[in-house]
Structure formats: structure tokens, C-alpha cells
Amino acid sequence: MFICSCNGLTDKDVHAAVGAGATRPQEVYASRKCRAKCGNCVPGVVCMLRQALKEQKALAALRTVSEISADNGLYQAVA
Ligand code: FES
């Protein structure tokens, strides 16, 4: 889904940018070698960026729990 028609930025681009370490809107645009032009997309990019960062944080926490469970021999009991 396109979220920035000026630059052809998609939701997948936002997720890829977050996966590469982006935490700020301008880093999302920079990951595609562009920047906000008209600015209409900025609120949507911010919203999607926040959501992607939340998901990334939740996934990291889940991995930590899995690692702790595996270290304690609990993984097979849970899985
Ligand atoms: S829609 Fe993104 S800068 Fe115009």
C-alpha cells in the first residue's frame, strides 16, 4: 500500500526501514533516498513508524522469553 504518493513510499518500505534501524520519519524517507515533499503523508508515516516500532519491540521481547525458556529447558515444555 502506498503511503507517500510523491515518493512512491509503501508500508513495506516503512517496515524495511525500521528493520534496518530507522526510528524517526526522516530516516524512513532517507532509507529510500527521498524526503517529504508536500508533507501530506507525514502523519501516516509517523503512525506506521510507531506501529512498526511497537511490533519490533514486542517481537524482541518474545524472542527474549523464548531464549530464556530455552536456556531453562522450558522451551520444549511450552512448545
Ligand atoms: S505524499 Fe509524501 S511527500 Fe507528498
UniProtKB/TrEMBL annotation:
It comes from the Bacteria. Residues 3-49 form the BFD-like [2Fe-2S]-binding domain. Keywords: 2Fe-2S, Electron transport, Iron, Iron-sulfur, Metal-binding, Transport. Gene3D superfamilies: BFD-like [2Fe-2S]-binding domain. Belongs to the Bfd family. This is Bacterioferritin-associated ferredoxin. The lineage of its organism: Bacteria, Pseudomonadati, Pseudomonadota, Alphaproteobacteria, Acetobacterales.
